[in-house]
Specification:
two-stranded antiparallel sheet; alpha/beta; globular
C-alpha cells in the first residue's frame, strides 16, 4: 500500500506540473465572431492528457488513459453502467486496487451553477472507488484565473463524505493545480 501512496504522490506532482503547462486558450476557448470565451471541458482534458503524458514519460508504472468506455466490462457494467471518467491511471487488463491508481473527473469552475452535474460526477468517482477498486479519485476543477474556487463546490464535496476523493483546483494558466482537501 505504501508503494501505491508513493506512486499516487508522484502522480499528483506530475499533475501539478502538467497543469502549470496548460495555456489559456485550452482553458477558455474563443468563440468565432464574438469577443466571448467559453469553457470547453474536452479541450482542457485533451491538453491535460497531452501534458500529463509528457510529464509522466514512459517509466511511470501506470498508464494514463482518457475516457475509456467501460460499459462492456463485466465488473463495471453491472455496478456503474455506462459511466466514463475523464481520465484513469491504471494497468490495463488488471482489475484490482494494486493496479488501479486513480480515476479523474474534470469540470470547469462553472459547474458551481450545476450542482446536480457535480453530484453525478462525485457518484461516478465513488463508484469507481468502491466497485472498480481505484486507490484514489480526483475531482479536478479548472478556471480562468479570475476567481477563487467557489465555496459551493467545496461544500458539495464535503457533504459527499468520501475521504478518498481529492478536490483539485487549477486556478488558471501558468499555475499549478493544488489539492484543496488533503
Amino acid at each position: 500500500m505504501k508503494d501505491m501512496e508513493n506512486n499516487f504522490d508522484l502522480f499528483l506532482r506530475c499533475l501539478g506540473e502538467a497543469g502549470r503547462r496548460i495555456d489559456s486558450h485550452y482553458i477558455k476557448l474563443d468563440v468565432a465572431g464574438s469577443a466571448k470565451q467559453i469553457y470547453r471541458e474536452r479541450v482542457y482534458c485533451y491538453e491535460l492528457y497531452h501534458q500529463l503524458r509528457c510529464v509522466l514519460g514512459d517509466c511511470f508504472p501506470y498508464e494514463l488513459n482518457g475516457e475509456i468506455d467501460k460499459a462492456g466490462h463485466h465488473i463495471i457494467q453491472k455496478a456503474l453502467g455506462a459511466k466514463k471518467p475523464d481520465l484513469i491511471v491504471h494497468v490495463p487488463g488488471r482489475m484490482t486496487k494494486k493496479y488501479n491508481l486513480a480515476v479523474i473527473e474534470v469540470k470547469p469552475v462553472t459547474v458551481k451553477d450545476k450542482p446536480d452535474k457535480l453530484r453525478d460526477d462525485l457518484k461516478t468517482l465513488k463508484g469507481f472507488l468502491n466497485e472498480a477498486h481505484y486507490h484514489r479519485a480526483i475531482m479536478l476543477i479548472y478556471g480562468d484565473g479570475s476567481c477563487d474556487l467557489p465555496q459551493k463546490i467545496q461544500t458539495e464535496l464535503e457533504n459527499f463524505h468520501e475521504e478518498h476523493i481529492l478536490l483539485v483546483w487549477h486556478r488558471g494558466p501558468g499555475e499549478m493545480p493544488v489539492v484543496v482537501n488533503r
